Amino acid sequence: xxxxxxxxxxxxxxxxxxxxxxxxxxxxxxxxxxxxxxxxxxxxxxxxxxxxxxxxxxxxxxxxxxxxxxxxxxxxxxxxxxxxxxxxxxxxxxxxxxxxxxxxxxxxxxxxxxxxxxxxxxxxxxxxxxxxxxxxxx
Length: 138
Hints:
single chain, alpha+beta, five-stranded antiparallel beta sheet, Heat Shock Protein 90, 5 strands, 138 residues
């Protein structure tokens, strides 16, 4: 119907819960972005997906088990949305990290890159961390 924008159908992927999957997560987002896409926006969305996936792998999956994480990417209501799900029971929380720590800044980065983010339980087990980045200026 003319004049009505049909929303994008979400894209989703499953990856092994291994740090080697993080570059594949970044590539999936790069490939899913509309072309052309401003380089800064592309970079920020890939960085955001990378941080969410790394946290899900490090803190949401059990070592030694054959587990996966799920990445979902879609546009709605003027935002690009990313959700990364893992089977873990623990919920992420924003922490302050001293300047000497080698980690612990993932959610600080997620908060800086996204307009909104939060955690939602999954129907079966685990949770999804969802972040939205406003689509403006192009």
